[in-house]
Structure formats: structure tokens, C-alpha cells
Amino acid sequence: MQRTALYAKHLESGAKMVDFAGWEMPIHYGSQLQEHHQVRNDAGMFDVSHMVILDLVGAQSKAFLHYLLANNVDKLKESGKALYSCMLTPEGTVIDDLIVYFITDTQWRIVVNAGTRDKDIAWMQQQIATFDATLTERDDLSMIAAQGPNARAKVLGIMPADEVAIVEPLKAFYGAFVNDWFIARTGYTGEDGFEMMFPNEQAHKVWDALLVAGIKPIGLGARDTLRLEAGMNLYGTDMDETTSPLVSGLGWTIGWQPADRNFIGRSALEAQKAAGIPQKFVGLVLEGKGVLRSHMKVICEGGDGETTSGTFSPTLGVAIALARVPASCGDTCEVDIRGKLHPAKVVKPVFARNGKSVLN
Amino acid sequence: MSNVPSDLKYTKSHEWVRDNGDGTVTVGITDHAQELLGDLVHVDLPEVGTEFGAEDGCAVAESVKAASDIYAPVPGVIIESNEAVQDSPELINSDPYGDGWLFVMRVDDEDALGELLDAESYKAECDE
Q1: How many CB atoms lie within 10 A of CB A202?
Q2: Chain A residues within an 8 Å CB radius of B63
Q3: Closest residue of A to B43, CA-based?
Q4: Residue B91: its chain A contacts at CB < 8 A?
Q5: A313 at interface of B, judged by CB pairs closer than 8 A
Q6: Which residues of A78-97 are buried (b: 16+ CB within 10 A; e: fewer)?
Q7: Which Gene Ontology biological process is one annotated for this entry (chain B) (predicted)?
Q8: Where are the alpha helices (DSSP H) in A100-216?
Q9: C-beta neighbour count of A331 within 10 angstroms
């Protein structure tokens, strides 16, 4: 199994390590629930060095992204701005979701999932062959996400003034190079914070400094409950190569305009749209006690659906799920939990952000 | 190493059993089991009066991570379920052998108690 540069630091912090996509990663450091609340209420840090950082350069790098990505990088007008996008098969199903940072028209940074590393790189290298552009994996970099209402202030508090001058003004979804670091105001928790990429050799020093600043280590367990509450999709469970973004709550990430941008999967998505989308992606809130999990049957008016992710929401104190249900599904449904039907409310697929519930 | 009190009996599926000496047993999950599960957020306990055979699934403990079946350690009928853990499942994490108990059974066949593991054997099971 592979280990990040922070492996020894996780053990020092009392992590319980598990296999995650071939990486030995911390699932929690004692209590997943406490870690969840730590991020919603204060500040926590995640080692996300297992994620794959790719640098794209070249005269035709923008043209390549126009072709590769379902979202349109032309939306990125200012250097440092980030865009969330899917990478689709020609059949219009999802190969992976990713973040692309616009540096210049000939320089981009892309972050893809760890679990899809090999197939993503193979696919991208195959598609890039006819473009004057090159893609380089940056496994010399580590990545820590500091997240929570106090995360920004705590990170800025330990930065030299010249770096604060660059990082403090960053708006949400923008990043910037700071010497050999790249720091972006992005994340996967529904909270404010930074994702920071820096050379592996600095990882231990950075971790220790963040700990001293009062940013506590958070495991992958809480990362999952945080992202689910925030209504952020997880590749492999909420969408994959068998599902279209249009039935995965990701329609908003498709850059339909301009109509003549011929990205991979476009014609398939247009055909799906023309035929009518039979399903929709929703949030579920369980009415009574119990816990929702992925792949539970959902019974609603107009047919059956399925949960794609589910958990107990520490912020709301009830079970929540993301689910793919018939388009005709109303505002209530029932979920089959071990053979018993439990009533649930159907809501927009976002439950909690910035420390609190977004449900009415 | 997790706590394994020597006055209790155990199952391979990580239930503990306290012989109350009056034909009933109190059942819970071990410290080792709660550690493996992580923070508990929900338990489904059996209704009073329900009859179970040994190793029948009779309850479910759910942590944020996963759902785990709990098995009747001996054949018998449920005479009490711990309502406190249904409201506060975290009691199972904080006090697995005390306030975190799950249910009391009237034992059909007291000989079945002899087939349970003692603390030493259970420890050995966990170390494997």
C-alpha cells in the first residue's frame, strides 16, 4: 500500500489507518463525530495528498480542455480561478470529476481523484495526443485541506506577511502560487478554508505548524459526512461510468454554451436531453430514527429509486442521503432499511453548509 | 488493548454476556467492538417478548461508518431493552459494559452459557 509524506504524522496523532484506494489513510483520530463538529465549528485539516495533481502546459492546452471537459474553461476569466467539471465518456457517462485551476491560457493545474488515477491519466494522455500540450503528474507535491469557519484565519496567522498579502485577498474558488506553494480557497466540506499544495519535503513541518495553530487532524470518515451534508457528490458512489451527470445532480456543471464546443460526451448528453431525463437527483432526510446508507431502495410516487450515498448527519442529528429517483417523485418517499419501509422527506441535495442546516 | 472484564462471558461475534444468576443474562457489545465500529449513532433493539435462537441476529448497531448485526448469544426471550441507549447510542462507546448494555434475555437453556468464551479466550480471539 502507498503512504503519503504525512504517514508518520498520522500515527503520531493517533490515527486509525485504513486502505483507501490503495493508500494507507487515516479514517479517524479517535472520534469521527468530534472531527466532523471540529470542522463545522472551528478548523480541521485533512491530508489529501493521495489525490492526483496534474500540471497541463502547452500552446493548445486550452483547446484540449475545451474538448476533454464537460464544463467550459472559458468561464475562467481571471488567473487562479477554479472550475469544477466532469470528464465524460463519449456515451455521456462520468469518468471522473475534477477541479481545474486556470493559471494562464497555456498553464493549468488539475486535481483528480485518487481512486481513478490510472484510468484518468490513461484517458487524458490518449486524448491529448493530437494537441500541442503536455500533462505532468506532480507526485512531488503533498496537499493539505484546512477547513472550517476559523481555518483561514488560523492559516493566515502562521504565514509571513508577504505571503498573507497574496493569500488573504483570495476569493472563494480562487488560488494562487506563493513561492513553491499553490494555495486555493477551495474544499470539500461546505466550509471556508484553503487547499494547499507544497513540496513533499515540507509536509511534516507544515503539519506541525498547522497543529500548533489549533487546526486539528480530521480523518476521511468525517470528510465523507461533511461533503455529504454539503451536498457534494462523491465519485464512484453518486456517479460513475454507468451514470450521466444529468441524473447525478451535475447538470449545472455542463457548459452547453457555446453550442459549437464539441466536448467528449456532448452529443450523448444532447440526445438524453432530447429524449427527456427520466430521473432526478435529490436529498433525503429520514423522518424517524435509523441510518441511511448507499444503495437502499427508495419507493416514491411514480416508481422506485436508490440512495447513492447515505449517512447519519452529525450537524442535523438525523439520517440523510443523496438519491436518484424517478423525475415524478414528490416531496415524500419511503426508504427500505433492512426490509422495513421508513418515511423520508425529499429535499434539494444540500443539507448543511457554513456550520448550520440549510433545511427549512 | 481494549478492556475485557474477567467476570463476563463473550461470543466470537463480540457480544458480552453477564449472568445475572436468576436465569437471565444482560447482553451488550464489547469495548473492542465499539472501538471497531467507531461513534455509534443508532441502535435497533429487539422488542420485549421476542424469542431468539443462539446466534440469531436480534439487534443492529449503527455507527457513522457502518451497520453491524448483534446476535443473541444464547437461546431465550427478550425481557428488557435498554431505552437509554436508543436515545443516547454514544453510551455504548463511553461505557460498553455499564450504561451501554443493550438487552436482557431469559435464558431457555442454561447449559448454553457454558459454551460461551471466557475473558482469556475472547482476548485470544481478538488478538488473532
Answers
A1: 15
A2: 32
A3: A290
A4: none
A5: no
A6: eebbbbbbbbbeeebbbbbb
A7: protein lipoylation
A8: 117-128, 151-157, 161-167, 203-212
A9: 10
Q: Is B79 helix (H, G, I), strand (E, B) or coil?
A: strand
Residues A139-145, mean pLDDT to the nearest whole number: 98
Write out the DSSP string of A275-289.
H---EEEEEEEESSS
* Pairwise CA distance, residues A112 & A106, whole Å: 19
Question: In this predicted model, what pLDDT tens digit does every residue of B25-54 receive, in sequence order?
Answer: 999 999 999 999 999 999 999 999 999 998
CA-wise closest residue to A238 among A334, A324, A319? A324
A193 three-class SS? strand
User: Percentage of chain B surpassing pLDDT 70?
Assistant: 99
User: What DSSP string describes A138-154?
Assistant: -TTEEEEEEESTTHHHH
CB contact under 8 A, A221 and B64: yes
Whole-model pTM: value is: 0.93
A296 three-class SS: coil
Across chain B, mean pLDDT equals: 94
Judge whether A349 and A283 are in contact, CB under 8 Å.
Answer: yes
What domains are defined for chain B? 11-110 (2.40.50.100)
CB atoms within 10 A of CB A220: 20
The pLDDT score that the predictor gives to residue B65 is 85
Sheet holding A141-147, edge to edge: A175-178, A181-184, A193-199, A141-147, A44-47, A216-217
**Predicted local distance difference test score (pLDDT) of residue A302:** 86
Phi, psi of A247, deg, nearest 5: -115, 20
Q: Which residue has the cell 444529468?
A: A246
User: Would residue B84 be called left, alpha or beta, if left means φ above 0 and alpha means ψ between -120 and 50 degrees?
Assistant: alpha
Q: Testing the interface with A: which of B64, B90, B92, B93 to mutate, by most A Cβ within 10 A?
A: B64
Q: Could you tell me if A324 and A277 are in contact, meaning their C-beta atoms sit under 8 angstroms apart? A: no
Residues B41-76: b if buried by 16+ CB within 10 A, e if exposed: bbbbbbeeebebebeeebbbbbbbbebbebbbbbbb
- Out of A33, A290, A338, the one facing B39 most closely (by C-beta) is A33
Which residues in chain A have their CB less than 8 angstroms from residue B42's CB?
Answer: 289-291, 312, 319
List the single best residue of A289, A311, A316, A335 to mutate versus B (max B Cβ within 10 A): A289
Q: Dihedral sign for Cα A5, A109, A268, A280, please.
A: positive
